[in-house]
Amino acid sequence: MPLPDSTSAGRKVGFVSLGCPKALVDSERILTQLRVEGYDIVQTYDDADVVVVNTCGFIDSAVTESLDAIGEAMAENGKVIVTGCLGKRPEQIREAHPDVLAITGPQDYRSVMNAVYAALPPTHDPFVDLVPRRFEENDIGIKLTPKHYAYLKISEGCNHRCSFCIIPSMRGDLVSRPVDEVLREAEKLAMGGVKELLVISQDTSAYGVDVKYAERTWRGKAYQTRMKALCEGLSELGIWTRLHYVYPYPHVDDIIPLMAERNADGLPKLLPYLDIPFQHASPRVLKLMKRPGAVDKTLERIQRWRDICPDITLRSTFIVGFPGETEAEFEELLDFLDEAQLDRVGAFAYSPVEGAAANALPDPVPEDVKQERLARFMARQAEISEAKLADKVGSVQRCLVDAIDGELAIARSMADAPEIDGLVQIQNGFEAGLKPGDFVDVEIMGSDEHDLYGEVPFDD
Ligand code: SF4
């Protein structure tokens, strides 16, 4: 991952960022603090006086990747501080790499900084040290995303205890950020040129439960620390806001009208997009997973959302081959796909995560059966996604340009989140003078299983 370069002379820190968008936000925060405190962020192991590795520990392959990254940093540099989710398992890290300098857990920014101070003691500069080191009002800190979109983390931790997941044991129970603090950060990002905010958390619909929906003030108006009020505040910024990790609770219904409402520019106040990890559709499997299991209500709810906001895009993720999943239960899942007609779907074959309660469940599904089910699942959804995208041919879609590639502009419509969904290739993007961060209306002329193809119409 390319990291921002620094020109000031000083103590030099290398940084390796692994894992999900939530870990990326942690990396941004540590990098910003390092920069504020006068450290240089450098691009190579050779240039670094110390290397910080922000790890992921969610599934076994992520653990392996994290241990490999630590090993590489040890071999190339030798002075390594480990942080992030895998930091919750220090024995595992020490067993593979006994000589790392320090190990801290996720969101433990202060301990990472203390480890950096120990490795590279701050030097006393009588001129600089008299100046308080803090952000300017509109400083948005270091971002690892392109300039025109940013992740907005609204809470840490999770109150659920899904049996396949160890996040609560790594990140703790839900802790929501006060709504005014989140809105102020969003405002700064918008003023700094961000055109799309990606709201992330472990459970966005639970936002504010822990603080009893405390009321705060932003721009002279009262807002509750609650998903709906947050969305209302964000809609004031006039940029795209996309919600991730939302659970299908009844109160999610309250935000759908905002997706159907238009602002003064004719754009939805909130992107008509929900990323909802359903994980399965069989009530028994959902119970084993310790997830909410009212599948019929979920289908009804989806229908109601579509009645209110017909162009809503629904994205979800699923696990196939969970311990005890029978062929009949897997077929229930396929039937759910047919009925729900989701726009975007990701799926994984179940793989045990060290420390997860699901490991103790009986009747594990053999690996070949898991893989065969995954292939059937993906084939079924591919047909649905392809048909849904084909329906868009002939329409005009508002898109946000991510990059220029030769003659093409690579963009995303409101239905596409960065990294995980599809793209819109604009065939005459260069000729139309587009650049990253531009909004543009695109005439859709073709589609395939993942992407759309179109052109910017020119006036004759
Ligand atoms: S909702 Fe479940 S899967 Fe998501 S973080 Fe919480 S415990 Fe893990």
Going across the biggest sheet, name each strand in turn: 2-1-3-4-5
Share of residues in strands: 15-25%
Q: Give the % helix.
A: 25-40%
How far the N terminus sits from the C terminus, by CA atoms, comes to: 43 Å
Main sheet specs: 5 strands, parallel
**Total number of β-strand segments?**
20
Low-confidence stretches: 1-9, 126-138
What structural class results from the helix and strand content? alpha/beta
Shape type:
globular
Bound molecules: iron/sulfur cluster
SS element count, helices: 12
Mean pLDDT: 89
Radius of gyration: 23 Å
Q: Your description of this structure?
A:
Strand 4, helix 3 (90-96) and strand 5 form a beta-alpha-beta unit. The chain is built from twelve helices and 20 strands. Helix 6 runs parallel beside helix 7 and helix 11 (327-340) packs parallel to helix 12. It starts with 11 loop residues before the first strand and ends in a 5-residue tail after the last strand. The model is unreliable at 1-9 and 126-138 (pLDDT under 50). It has 460 residues and is an alpha/beta fold. It is globular and about 60 Å long. The strands form six sheets. Strands 2-1-3-4-5 form a five-stranded parallel β-sheet, with helices on both faces. It has a five-stranded mixed β-barrel with strand order 16-17-18-20-19. A three-stranded parallel β-sheet has the order 6-9-12, sandwiched between helices.
